Amino acid sequence: MQSLSKLLEYPSVERCLGGVEEFSDTQPWIYQFDNPYLHGVYAPTCNELNVSGLYVEGELPADLEGAYFRNGPNPRFQPRNRYHPFDGDGMLHGVYFSSGTARYCNRYVDTAALCAERKEGYSISPGVMGPFDYSVSRFGIKDTSNTDVFFCDGDLVSLWYNAGDPYRLDVASLETRGFFELPGRGERRLSAHSKVDLNTGELLFFAYGDEPPYMTYGVANMRGERLHEVAIDLPGPRLPHDIGVSRHYTILHDLPFFHDMEVLRRHRYRVLTFHRDMPIRFGVIPRFGEGHEVRWFECEPGYILHTSNCWEEGDWLVMDGCRSTNPMPEARPGEGELASMLAYMRLEANNYRWRFNLRTGEVREGDIDDLNTEFNKTNPLYLGLKSRYAYHQRIPLLREGGHTLRFTGLVKYDNETGRRWQWDYGAGVYGSEAVYAPRRGATSADREDDGYVVTLVTDSKSWQSWCLVFAASDIEGGPVARVRLPQRVPFGFHATWVRGEDLISQH
User: Entry's PANTHER family (predicted)?
Assistant: First the structure.
C-alpha cells in the first residue's frame, strides 16, 4: 500500500494549451468578447500543472490529510454562440495535503464534446443560450461536466448540472479515465449533487431529462454497482438541482422554475419561467422505496439550488438549505443580449429550513437568516444525521456591487440558533465553495466542527491564488494556513473533500 506522501511526490508537469506562449495566463480569444464571465477572475487558464512542495504561510495542521477538489468552467475554444458560464469545459483543480506539505494539480475533464472539438480545432457545440442543436449532441447543447465532483470506487467522478454523462478521473493525476458507469442502468446520465453517504458507503443518485420518465432516483454502492433505481412521476420536464438525504429517506425536488418544451421544439431555445403561483413540491421516498411510495409536500413558491443536510426527529423530517424567492430577477437596462444571463447569475438566496411531518403531513418552513449566501456545505460525516453547522459563501447583491456572481466571504452558521460567524476574503479577493475536511481518523461521533474548512481564493489585484485552511471552530480567527498556488485559479462551481485514508486505500 502506497503512503499518502507519495501522492504529493507525483512528477511535476507543466503543459501549455491553446497555441500561445509558454507562460501565458489565458486564452487570447477572450479579448474579442465583451462578456464579464470571460475576463478577470472568470478568465480561463490555459495551463495544466502538477506542482509539489508548495509554499505555505502559517503551518498546515498535522492531522489534515486528504485532498480538496473543485470543478468549474474553463472554456478551451472560442465559443460558437453567446457564452454563458455554464458552457465552459470542465476543469478539476486539486490541492493535496499530507505531513504539513501540499501539492497542486489541474486538468481538463476530457468529455466526448471536448475531445471532438480538439479534433476539429474549434468549438462545434452550442451553449445553453442556444440555439439547441441535437445533431451535435443528444442533449442539444454541450455536456461540459463542469459542475460537481464526488469520490466513488477509487476515482473522482465529475458531473454536469444538466444531468449529463458522468466521467471518471484518476484521483492522483486528474486524468480522465472514461465514463462512470453503473451497470444495469438503461441511461448513463447522472445529475450533479448526487450524494455519497460515508456512513453507509452508498451513493444516492438522481437524473432527469426532457422525455419520460422525467426523473429517476437510485442507490449504488461504493464499488459502482447499482442497487436500486425507480422512475419518479412528474407532470413534465423539470430542472431540479439537488436532493436531500436523511438516514432512511431521500427528498426529491419538483420546483416551479422550468421550461416549455413546445418553445424548445419550435424555436430551439430553452426559455425558463418562474411560475410564481405554483408551490414547491418535495417528494419524500424511502431510501430503497418505489415510485408509488413518494409522498409529496407542498411549500412556498421559490427555487432551491443546494441543500445543506437532512435528518429525522421523531415524526419530523428536517431539511436545511438555501432558498431563492425569485430565481429570475429583472434584467437591467443596457446589458444587451446578455441581460437575462447576467440577471440569472446574480444569485439571491438565504439560509432556510423546511420541516415535514411524516405522520400528519404538516409542513413548517422559514428563514434561518436573511443574509445573501449560497454554495452551502456541511461536515460530510454528518450526512443524514442531525447537524448544527453549515459553511456558506457570502454573495454580494446587485446594490452591493454584485454585477456578477462572486464569493466575498466565508460564513459559518449555527442553524439551531441562526447565529453566524463571517470571515471576509478582502477587497478584490474572491473565493470558491468551501468544504469541511474532517481530521485524520474522525467519525460522526466526534464533535461536529472539530476539523477544518478549506477553500480557494484569487486576489484580483495581483491574480495570485491561494488555498486557505481554517479551523472550523474559529472561522473569525482567519486561516491557520495559506498555501500559495502556482497559477491563477478561475472562478468555479462545486468542491469535495477526499479523506487521506480513502486516497491511501486506492494508491
Answer: BETA-CAROTENE DIOXYGENASE, CAROTENOID 9,10(9',10')-CLEAVAGE DIOXYGENASE 1
E strands, 191-313, are 195-197, 202-208, 215-221, 226-232, 244-245, 249-254, 257-259, 272-274, 280-286, 295-299, 303-313
What pLDDT does residue 504 have?
80
The continuous run of DSSP H or E covering 168 comes out as strand 167-169
DSSP symbol at 44: P
Q: What is the mean pLDDT of residues 373-379?
A: 98
| Structural domain count, the chain | 1
Q: Say if CB 315 and CB 362 are below 8 A apart.
A: no
Q: Is 440 exposed, middle or buried (0-12, 13-18, 19+ CB in 10 A)?
A: middle
Q: Which of 293, 290, 284, 351 is nearest to 312 (CA)?
A: 284
Binding site per annotation, positions: 193, 241, 306, 494
**Interatomic CA distance for residues 72 and 90, integer angstroms:** 5
Eight-state DSSP code of residue 444: T
Is the pLDDT reported for residue 185 higher than 80? Answer: yes
**What is d(CA 192, CA 422) in angstroms, rounded to the nearest whole number?**
28
3-state percent breakdown (helix, strand, coil) of the chain, nearest 5: 10, 40, 50
Cis bond upstream, residue 213 (ω within 30): yes
Which helix (H) or strand (E) is 48 found in, with range? strand 47-51
Alpha-carbon distances, residue 485 vs 50, 96, 429, 463 (angstroms): 11, 12, 14, 11
Range of the domain at 226: 4-506
Residues 235-264: pLDDT tens digits? 999 999 999 999 999 999 999 999 999 999
Report which residue type is found at 44. Answer: P
Listed in sequence order, the residues at least 6 apart from 57 whose beta carbon sits closer than 8 Å to its beta carbon are 481, 482, 483, 484
pLDDT tens string 4-24: 655 655 555 555 554 433 346
CA 227 vs CA 242, 244, 352, 384, 413: distances in Å: 20, 19, 32, 19, 35
Tens-place pLDDT, residues 203-223: 999 999 999 999 999 999 999
Kindly give the pairing relationship between strand 363-367 and strand 101-108: unpaired
33: cell is: 468578447
Q: Which of 44-48, 333-337, 348-352 has the lowest mean pLDDT?
A: 333-337
Q: How distant, in Å, are the alpha carbons of 312, 318, 331 from that of 243?
A: 15, 13, 29
DSSP 373-385: EEEEE--GGGTTS
How far apart are alpha carbons 230 and 389 in whole angstroms? 32
Buried-state track 476-504, b at ≥16 Cβ within 10 A, e below 16: eeebbbbbebbbbbbbbbbbbbbbbebbb
Q: Residues with Cβ < 8 Å from 173, sequence gap 6 or more?
A: 10, 50, 105, 107
CATH code of 347's domain: 2.130.10.10
Tell me which residue of 242, 194, 246 sits closest to 218, measured CA to CA.
Answer: 194
